[in-house]
Specification:
alpha/beta, Rossmann fold, Dihydrodipicolinate Reductase, domain 2, nine-stranded mixed beta sheet, six-stranded parallel beta sheet
Length: 335
């Protein structure tokens, strides 16, 4: 009996399909995805596309079997690539992603989905009857602390939500393709929209470029929601300490998620001043790895992703409105 079970296990292993994944972009985040693919045991990095010869060489050094190219069409025509992860500068997201969709491959696009809401709507309007997975990388929604907060909100543990505050500051990399708002705030916008389950009625923002004249490096934003909830966000490339914090205040209880602290999630069981905080145990997990696992799960099972392109459009719409508000120093109403 044991030998039969052993043969079954071997047969099951032999029939397991290993997904073949391509990377477009091997700069800042590409190597992280490559590492996670190596560690996954269920997918392999089959292709890497990057214009930089040194980036392609780095990919080859870590994954000797990977095929490399500087030509996106060569990757799209390859029959040994099932899915593609897009980690190029934001300005190129739309064109690259559209070509991938037209080639009939599964795609995961790093945040933000596109550089404009018009581009995002165009991607959503493309035919989608081929069963492919189209997912945006709102990685914080795969963080176990954020999942705990979402479940607490759904259970009504916190009571009606009143206020959300996000702070994402530090000496961050200065990017040439986007400003601090588009670099940092997609994380916080995606969490706020996920927790509240709706779009803001209006937004306002103030920004300033201290480090260079062409890119705002400090942005203060506020979102007002139907129902009276307020969410404010602070994004900065020019702060002498790192902070990644989300505060969620309800009428009964509050939760604070501090992503750089050893104890990442704290619960305040009372809204009274001086109420003691309790540490909420959160399982250790790498959110980027959980996001990749979810992408692979969706491909294997045909399930709808937690972060579909529609959510990407919502985040880009809010980013655009905040950018317009900062540029005109006015409140922007969303339809």
């Amino acid at each position: 009996m044991g030998s039969v079970c052993g043969r079954c296990r071997r047969l099951s292993f032999e029939l397991t399909v290993v997904l073949r994944v391509g990377l477009v972009g091997y700069g800042y985040w590409g190597p992280n995805y490559a590492r996670l693919l190596r560690e996954s045991g269920r997918a392999t990095l089959s292709w890497c596309c990057d214009l930089s010869e040194s980036a392609r060489a780095a990919a080859k050094q870590h994954d000797p079997a990977v095929k490399t190219t500087s030509n996106l069409d060569e990757l799209l025509e390859a029959n040994d690539c099932d899915a593609i992860i897009v980690v190029v500068p934001t300005v190129h997201h739309y064109a690259v992603t559209k070509h991938i969709i037209e080639a009939g491959k599964h795609v995961l696009v790093e945040k933000p989905l596109t550089a404009t809401s018009e581009e995002a709507r165009d991607l959503l309007a493309l035919p989608h009857d081929d069963g492919t997975i189209r997912m945006v990388g709102h990685v914080y929604l795969y963080n176990p602390a954020v999942r705990y907060i979402r479940e607490a909100v759904a259970r009504g543990t916190l009571g009606a939500l009143r206020y959300l505050g996000a702070s994402r500051i530090g000496f961050s990399p200065k990017r040439d393709d986007v400003d601090a708002l588009w670099d940092l705030s997609p994380h916080d916008i995606s969490m706020v929209l996920h927790l509240l389950g709706k779009m803001p009625a209006s937004v306002s923002a103030f920004s300033h470029a201290y480090l260079r004249q062409d890119r705002a490096d400090v942005v203060l934003s506020t979102m007002l929601f139907p129902g009276g909830q307020i969410a404010d966000m602070q994004a900065s490339w020019d702060t002498p300490f790192k902070q990644r914090r989300l505060t969620v205040v309800g009428e009964k209880q509050s939760l604070i998620f501090d992503d750089v602290a050893a104890e990442k999630l704290s619960l305040y069981e009372s809204t009274a001043a001086g109420a003691p905080a309790q540490t909420v145990p959160i399982p250790a997990a790498e959110p980027l790895g959980s996001q990749l696992d979810h992408f692979l799960d969706c491909i294997e099972n045909g399930a709808a992703p937690l972060t579909p392109f529609r959510d990407g459009l919502d985040v880009v719409t809010v980013l655009e409105a905040l950018s317009h508000s900062a540029a005109t120093r006015s409140t922007v109403t969303l339809a």
